[in-house]
Amino acid sequence: MHQKIAAVRSVVLLFAGTGCHGGPDAAHTADAICYGGDIVTLNDAQPQAEPLTVKDGKILMVGSREQIERSYKGATTTMIISPAKP
């Protein structure tokens, strides 16, 4: 449980610190952006998110799709859409 809380805190801190840069550099370009599904954050302030970004096998960021794509989508980023629910 403590690991989940630490992970959520890391995501929140990362989210708070990314509002000022204009586009992704190599260190911040996501390997993949996953969207279209239900992403539960375990953060009471933001219980759900639109997309989820992944870099080097770790969650880099959750937030709004517009912000994620502006800040983390690069030429090599794979966009993964969740399949439609039955």
CATH topology: Urease, subunit C, domain 1
The major sheet is characterized as: 4 strands, mixed
**Uncertain parts:** 6-21
Task: Report the CATH architecture.
Answer: Roll
Write down the overall geometry. Answer: globular
What's this model, at a glance?
The chain has 86 residues and is α+β, with helices and mostly antiparallel strands.
Task: Note down, in words, how this protein is organized.
The chain has one domain: Roll (Urease, subunit C, domain 1). The protein is 27% helix and 24% strand. It contains two helices and six strands, in the order αβββββαβ. It has a four-stranded mixed beta sheet. A hairpin with a 7-residue loop joins β2 and β3. It is globular, with a radius of gyration of 13 Å. The termini are far apart. About 19% of the residues have low confidence.
Tag the structure with descriptive keywords.
Urease, subunit C, domain 1; 4-stranded mixed sheet; 6 strands; 24% strand
Write the layout of secondary structure elements.
Elements: H1 2-16, E1 32-35, E2 39-40, E3 48-49, E4 52-55, E5 58-62, H2 65-72, E6 78-81
Parallel strand pairs: 1-6
Antiparallel strand pairs: 1-4, 2-3, 4-5
